[in-house]
């Protein structure tokens, strides 16, 4: 018997097909026709910051803009989405973002869930303490102290596993929350990448309040997080990153965003390919 479609059934089929397409290109991949969604931090001055006027600023933001442009998306075609440390893998896996540029270190654990283009920046874990506190100068000092870091970060992981397993570690959702704790003396130190800590220490409202310990407790290679197995996108982003270094943009952006904090950056890392 031959099945005959009624006009209503045919229309329903078209709607279904259209819905499936919309899901495929939209919610499933972080891009939707002429727009792309990119994950960044919203509370890290110098890297990814949402300013009071609703714009976004920082090294990661500008790296993301450069890469998006090379992929064919002008600045006004980018939707910015907050990507807290603990959410990054999920945002990528769920297709909520096309890529993440958010002080996102490449490591083995994360590589099981996502892929990375890059690295495009190298930094090191350090400590931020109150300017008048001379009791913390080395990592062992933390074992009798209250320490703050962020859930889902390599910084918190490193403290628990090797740096100071006896420290009273509080894990919060974002580094800006740790900073408030440090200011209010609810914690004695904040630990994460020196690139991030320098940004906080140099903010106008914090000047003179905090200091970096100047320790290099790890190597953090920032990569651009993408969906696992998307080798085409990885290739395109790596090409964009190489161009960004060779045309001088990387140097310019590093000076622009880390110059004000006085952060002494490492040279541009070699892209893994
Ligand atoms: N780079 C480290 C990480 O990816 C710490 C900074 C952050 O949490 O974004 O975990």
TrEMBL record:
* GO CC, alphabetical: extracellular region; outer membrane-bounded periplasmic space
Q: Which UniProt keywords apply?
A: Signal, Transport
Gene Ontology terms: biological process? amino acid transport
Q: Which residues form the signal peptide?
A: 1-22
Q: Does the keyword Transmembrane apply?
A: no
Q: Name one Pfam family in it.
A: SBP_bac_3
Solute-binding protein family 3/N-terminal domain segment(s): 35-261
- UniProt KW Transport keyword: yes
User: Which PANTHER family does the record associate with it?
Assistant: ABC TRANSPORTER GLUTAMINE-BINDING PROTEIN GLNH (PTHR30085:SF6), AMINO ACID ABC TRANSPORTER PERMEASE (PTHR30085)
Family per similarity comment: Belongs to the bacterial solute-binding protein 3 family.
Q: What name does UniProt use for this protein?
A: Glutamate binding periplasmic protein
**Organism, scientific name:** Streptomyces venezuelae (strain ATCC 10712 / CBS 650.69 / DSM 40230 / JCM 4526 / NBRC 13096 / PD 04745)
Cite the source lineage.
Bacteria, Bacillati, Actinomycetota, Actinomycetes, Kitasatosporales
């Amino acid at each position: 018997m031959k099945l005959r479609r009624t006009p209503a059934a045919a229309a329903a089929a078209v709607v279904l097909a259209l819905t499936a397409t919309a899901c495929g290109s939209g919610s499933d991949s972080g891009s939707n026709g002429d727009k792309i969604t990119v994950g960044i931090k919203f509370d890290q001055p110098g890297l990814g910051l949402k300013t009071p006027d609703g714009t976004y600023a920082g090294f990661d933001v500008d790296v993301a803009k450069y890469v998006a442009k090379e992929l064919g998306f002008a600045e006004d075609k980018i939707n910015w989405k907050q990507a807290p440390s603990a959410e990054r893998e999920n945002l990528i896996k769920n297709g909520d973002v096309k890529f993440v540029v958010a002080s996102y270190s490449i490591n083995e654990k994360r590589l099981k869930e996502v892929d990375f283009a890059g690295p495009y920046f190298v930094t090191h874990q350090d400590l931020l303490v109150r300017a008048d506190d001379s009791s913390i100068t080395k990592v062992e000092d933390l074992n009798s102290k209250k320490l703050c870091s962020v859930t889902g970060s390599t910084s918190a992981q490193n403290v628990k596993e090797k740096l100071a397993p006896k420290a009273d570690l509080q894990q919060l959702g974002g580094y800006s929350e740790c900073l408030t704790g440090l200011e209010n003396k609810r914690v004695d130190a904040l630990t994460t990448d020196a690139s991030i800590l320098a940004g906080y220490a140099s903010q106008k409202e914090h000047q003179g309040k905090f200091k970096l310990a100047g320790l290099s407790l790890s190597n953090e290679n920032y990569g651009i997080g993408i969906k696992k197995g998307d080798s085409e996108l990885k290739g395109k982003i790596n090409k964009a990153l190489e161009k960004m270094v060779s045309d001088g943009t990387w140097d310019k952006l590093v000076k622009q965003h880390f110059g004000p904090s006085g952060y002494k950056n490492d040279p541009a890392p070699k892209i893994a390919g």
